[in-house]
Description:
The protein is mainly α.
Amino acid sequence: xxxxxxxxxxxxxxxxxxxxxxxxxxxxxxxxxxxxxxxxxxxxxxxxxxxxxxxxxxxxxxxxxxxxxxxxxxxxxxxxxxxxxxxxxxxxxx
Length: 94
């Protein structure tokens, strides 16, 4: 798993939509890995992992160059699209 600064370096090296798409996919895969590694069996444990990933995304967005190319709420938007039931449980609205 990468740190926010590592993702920012990847984006800064190639600040394109495709790079951002790949980073978003990596964040979702990390979320899955964390859920499995922590054996998250309760809703609270699952939601905590999503919150943690959201915090990491915000740190990534703050560190990424190119102005405001990376939205701070990007992981929330991704979660709303891919897992709307999770976003609802977290109170993340569009």
